[in-house]
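Hello Y.,

Per our agreement to keep a running log of every chain we model this quarter, I'm adding this entry. I've kept the format consistent with earlier entries: sequence first, then predicted structure.
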Amino acid sequence: MDRIPHRKITAQIAFIIGLLLMFFGSAFLLGTLEGTTRFAILRAFFFVIIGALSAFFAIKLNKRSIYLFFAAFFLLVGFFLFLSALHILPFSFSQLWPLVSIFAGLALLPAGWHRFGSFRSRYVVPSVVFVLLGCALMVFSFRIVPFSFKHFVISWWPLLVVLIGLTLVLLSLGTKNSSPPNP
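Predicted structure for the entry above:
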């Protein structure tokens, strides 16, 4: 009787080791491409592996939405770094760093869906805020506007206060009142 749980644990360990070997072998294979460094490829695959393991934990072990958030986030970051290492994206990381905020916003959506079975404002509003923040920072990162982010914050800080207030109002409208109505 002790063999069945032992086999299950052995199968899970073999699955994880197999995934790691596949990813590291692919990383070294892709690292042999000209114009790329092994460190850049390994860094990208490190994030992909963390994302895959988080997805494994979300599906098999704990089924918590936080693991699904980390899985989606790390997979997006890993694929972004992979495309950057292969020079498929013509921009440097110093220009594309606001994508991290966009990735966080996009990763909130499957986590919220997994937790509630539908899109709820509790996850959608912060997701939209992260995506909009990333898009706004991309405008400054690509120098589309003739002024810096610091100058924008100094000049337009009341607009930021209004946007934070709007976010809080939208979040409060999305929460249900748990107390019964007064007669």
